[in-house]
Batch of 3 targets.
Target 1
Amino acid sequence: MIPCPPNGVLSRMTIPTPARPAARISFGIAMAVAALLCLQALPGMAEYTSVAVSNPYIRVVAGISGDAELGDARGGGSPEVGGKFAVGTSGGDPSSSLDNNSALLAGSDGESGSSLVPFGGSTYIVIDEETVILYGGEDGTWTKPPTLDPVTRVITDSFTPEEIPITISRTLKPLRDNVLVSFQITSDDLVAHTVGLVTVLDTEFGALEALPATGGPFYTTLTGSVSYERAFLGADVPDIIYAADRLPDYRIISQALLRRSDVTTPDVVQLVSLATATADPWGCEADPSVSLLTDSAMVLKWNEKALPAGGRLLPVSFYFGLGNACAEFSYPAVAALQTPFTLNYVRDIDDETGLVEDIGHIVPDPFVVYGYVYNLSPEVSLSGVQLQLTLPDGLEFATGESAIRSIGAIAPLQEGSVSWKVRATGLKTGPLPVTMSAVGSPMTGKAVTRTVDIPATETYLFRGGLGRWQMVTIPFETESTDLATALGLTTSQCPQSWLDSPLNFDDYGGTLSYHAFRWNPDGGGLSKYDRVTTVPLPGAAFWFRGCADLVLTMQGATPLVESDLQTRTIALRPGWNQIGNPWLYGVAWGRFRVLKDPAVGSVELKEAIRQRWVNGTLYWLNAETNDYDFSSAQSTVLQPWAGYWLRAYEPVTLIVPNVDTIGGAGVDISGGTGGGNNGGGGNGGDPPPPPLPPVPWSSSLMITD
């Protein structure tokens, strides 16, 4: 640790930014340089004391006492720093220089260059439903001021409110590119109390040398981007909340990890403007009409719980830091996996004709997956470190790549890294899981999984043969209305056994290359299926059985773009409906809305379920088991090309949300370069099983209506 000058006053210090992480990074020197405990005093500025620690990825600073003087660019003012903290980057994401030396929580005073000022993160203690105290503020005393352990590189402190013998202890623990924030509450009182916590995270984005952006959208996998105030309660609190300077093409992205085995999920999360958060941190309520793009904040609230006399509560903890990678943080090493969030669909320009090509493809091709192992120990080396990447169907290693990579030894406070080149085959779409496992000594085996969102293309694997039905929807508009023509399917692709079977003859003496049917709840008789010979609209699902298992590429097809408003709705009739996702990217079921009365407007899916307009359970056919899987979980992703059963109780309209991905994904057709039985959540009552796949040659169908 660099000592302060003898009088305890440091007039100016610039923390050197460590070099970008390479295959191995020396953390010891960088952390020693960045560990400070001193009095900040610049000419014309108020004075404050703080303690800080940094590594080549991230840094955190905790305020002890005093006021920070904000420059005119920050609107002036002198916020107290006692008990507050800030998180920023040093080197940031190793694959980009855009987030070097940047703020993730408010920490720029607008005047002093690269210094990180502790005022962006603040915590309030609520006692006995009425007393609200700022942690580290004037209504209490430090029993232990923020202190850096020179060995573990962890900041710890504890605070006691006035006149109430309760101690709140805090730990700020940097772990690679995230900080574990933990609180422990204990009582020395002879009477019981109720105690709750609320932490306000004032998100910022941008270089400290300049003026960081004070607002930006949030993102969750269930909601997509969140640009207006929004609240999450109880079971609706997301696993991860991302914050970015802009979406989908972010430059800086942070994350709060809220559902893990080593964190305490908040009871309430409010994504609000800073003005809303600071007006009443404990009682603030999101207003959906207020934008977050000017000044955004995240409010994490843990409701009051009974604290027995002389007892203690379970720890309250969460992670906050960079959102580029996912990681397993447990000692003695962090295993981290970094992939693109999403890949793109593009159509290139033909070099010879200068025209946009008719068929799209997925880019980047290949894309790069990074694996990291960060040795947390300041004393013990890791040895025999080896990483293995496991890919699902739909992803494959590029030519010459192998699944296993060896790092070998990793010295104390160093990091080892490897990379793989991976391709999307285009035959599987939606979020595909990539898993990295790490082994070494004395590290026990670790595994980290991250999903990569893969867009659909014109090419798809159609199942066929006797009994091989699958429910599909086509996420393209086509020049030809004839289904076989659009799919590029002819009888020349069919086996002789299919051609010889009278079951496959059409009404004119010819032979069919496929069978396709769509459920018609208004149909008469036992058979409520209509034969499909023309291309259904995107979002309309149907049963399909080709003459064999065939990989087909659609001809004359164009993907939908978001200006095609008329394609985003699906009319539902009472009874069973075959639906699908019309876009090239997967969409979470909970993001759909339902419209019953245009004069009133649409409602969220969960409200439509509560009103019993629709049943919340989706069914789809599992091609491997030839049986139905189902889910009522709002997080269920409707995949492109896949068809689903949904039961409606009223004639309503299902509104399909726009594609809302993270990481610059999109559909470029202008020539650019660019589970089963997993219930959860209410479903409006259990419906009967959906209709069985059709048997085209049977005169009667056993259908459950």
Target 2
Amino acid sequence: MYIKSVSCDPVFIGVVRCVMNDPTTTFQKQVQNTINNNPLIIDKMARKLLTQMQPKAPLLNALIKTHKPNMPIRPFVNNTQAPTHRLARHINKMLCNWQILPNTFNTKNSIQIAQDLKNLEIKPSHRVITLDIKYLYTNLPTQGVLEAAIYWMELGGINREKITQMTAVLNTIMQQNYFTYNNAYYKPQKGVAMGSPLSGTLTELYLQRLERLYIKHSIETRAIKYYSRYVDDIIIVFDTHDNKANNSTAIQQLK
């Protein structure tokens, strides 16, 4: 029952394909080549430290959501022995240190949202939308994430050669999104790797670019009165009497 429940979880249906053999050895060689070929991102001192010793395929497991009706199962992946794990942790730290994300619409917690809404002038015609991004990690487009990373690095004034090398490293990490389960090996066709220390940052790169493209203008023109996001949970306030809100590209996109 446990095996059937995990394998049939909607997060994997239609987006995961089975691979014939364990790709870990091949992936390890790819990681080593990436580490050696991008000296502006990974210096000589760090190379040995970023090579995973005795790598293993990430293992799919599950947690039972006891707080929800029917106690559904949440799949998760133990990525700590994957070939890219140490490299992903290093790259995540580097991207965070570059401070290229504005975090314009991110909220820290529900207290901050409550304070924001308290300071907002609410009219009878205002409506609130709450949204949840379903299966976030497995639905992100790989190319879209890379393009978002390049976008933010260019905007942040990162050196062109560094951007080229960082993009190559990110591509290697993203292409090694795989896991083992029940003595078989699987590779998602899109998305970022569950359990990777870099996936949260990659997700923010992508989502914050979408917000800059669609939400920023709607806020500035008052088509949307309020927008805030905590990871994959979104809250929006708009005015039903405002034609700009009814025709807002951002709202249509989010619907």
Target 3
Amino acid sequence: MSFIDDFTRFRVVFPIRAKSDTFEAFKAFKSYAENHLNAKIKALRDDKGGEYMSSAFLRFTTDAGIVRQHTVRNRPQQNGVAERANRTMAEGVTAMLAESGLPLSFWGEALASFVHVSNCLPTASISKQATPYQLWHGRKPDVAPFRVWGCLAYVHVQKDKRTSLGSHMQKCVFIGYPSGYKGWKFYDLASRRTLISERADFDERHFPSRKDSPPIPIPSFVDSDSRSERVPAQGGGRLMLSSTQLQLLLLQLLLLCLKLLSLPLHLLLQKLLLILLPLL
């Protein structure tokens, strides 16, 4: 269940199991909005669905002095703000689940994260140079904690949760921003449990729930397409040297030759043979 403030375009979502829980969700939103903004809800616009028309719901809004506004049958465009927001949220959640590879059971976590980030983004519906979060809370949002949803995270294991030689981290999947906490929410694929932590390192290039998302290798200082050459080693073994390493070896030999130029010719040839024979 989603509620949108028509002035600030701030969205609030409440996961519900059935449409019959709509009335309880509205009461929770009313208490939150009026206590937070120190103002009263003046009107409620809906599509006149059965979940909004129960006798208890109607009695509650009448006692609170809330004006009820309903759309005409089969005319959802009369409530275009809510309809457009619902479609945007549905498309966003679908894209997040497909990109991360997480199952559909995580749609609630994806929806909460999508709404949290959307409230912190500017929108053309607001004439002021502000975000819905800024108009609702009276301060600019902090976007530093934002991460790619569903990515790999190395979560710190607290000292009392590990042995003396145990790992200090565990691999998890980032699944959101928990309300009421200054941290992130993760899902441990091994134990199938969720946890909240404020210390984690993120690999936003890798999604562990996707089978077609292998870990990205660490880049090498040697050119990947450089040709490797086999150089015989002393004792019958064979060493693998790249073209770059071979060039460095030849450069060292050249410098050594320059140092030996002051020696007599027979001593110079003897020194070179001692160096080159093990490589032949």
